[in-house]
Specification:
Layout: H1 2-17, E1 39-46, E2 57-62, E3 68-72, E4 78-84, E5 90-96, E6 99-100, E7 104-106, E8 119-120
Parallel strand pairs: 1-8
Antiparallel strand pairs: 1-4, 2-3, 2-5, 5-6, 5-7
């Protein structure tokens, strides 16, 4: 009898060590993050003194297809591009009265669902 109990105890410990037996009353829920299917780029267009620039044209270039989208900044200088692929790199810049901001990049490795890129035009 002592030998049977010892064998059962060893099998139980071996199963626990191999992960076949879990403590805590049942299976633990797996926490999987949902893959991001799209993202939104937001930002602010300002001058060298950080004043918002309304009516600037913001250009967004898809570096895969070379397609370009544009957006006119709001009165408060904000802009927004919706439904962007998380698997593509983008380039963004703003233009107003023949003056341009530097080009900035939004990388596909940036995992934020709503990245912010502010653009500055030296006016």
């Amino acid at each position: 009898m002592k030998r049977v109990v010892t064998v059962l105890l060893m099998l139980t410990l071996a199963s626990f060590a191999l992960g076949q037996i879990k403590l805590g009353g049942g299976p633990s829920p797996e926490r999987k993050e949902k893959p991001m299917t799209s993202r939104i780029l937001i930002g602010l267009v300002t001058d060298k003194n950080d004043n918002p620039i309304p009516d600037a044209i913001v250009y967004l270039k898809d570096t895969k297809t070379l397609g370009i989208k544009s957006y006119v900044s709001q009165k408060d200088g904000t802009y927004r591009f919706n439904a962007l692929s998380p698997n593509i790199d983008y380039e963004v810049y703003a233009q107003k009265d023949e003056k341009k901001s530097p080009v900035k990049k939004l990388s596909q490795f940036d995992s934020r669902p709503e990245p912010r890129i502010n653009l500055k035009i030296e006016m």
